[in-house]
């Protein structure tokens, strides 16, 4: 009888420690279900839209799949719809929506593309200048770079896009890893 009572006390103690330390599967599931019913305060992103104050474009961001992990790195499939993008320009898996991935983007001519052409070569990363004048398809019209080019932009999900700038002599120093970083953004992203 004494052994049985000692065993019962040991099981009860272990059970109390386990239930106090970690939530059960059913408790976690209940929290997830109740979390969707909570009412949040109305804010500036009431309809899920964001306005880029630099370009004036409106965009919508939708997360379709999100897997919780045990660190700060999110694992998710997120898509983005920006205003001003013509339907014929985008033909991906999400239609007019674009995958929300980090990228470098800009407005460039279809004739010259990403290259800068001319005597300076095609290496845009080393020769970070405007793309230059572009001739029209009939070769009688032309556009100067300030008429169509707003600069090269770095887009980071959740942070938006920011212009890539050429590092000036008075700019803050880049990382001290032995490499030179000729480009940076206002948010101090260093690019080489």
From TrEMBL:
Out of the domains of life, which is the source? Bacteria
Signal peptide limits: 1-22
Sorted UniProt keywords? Signal
Protein name, per record: TonB-dependent receptor
UniProt source species = Kinneretia aquatilis
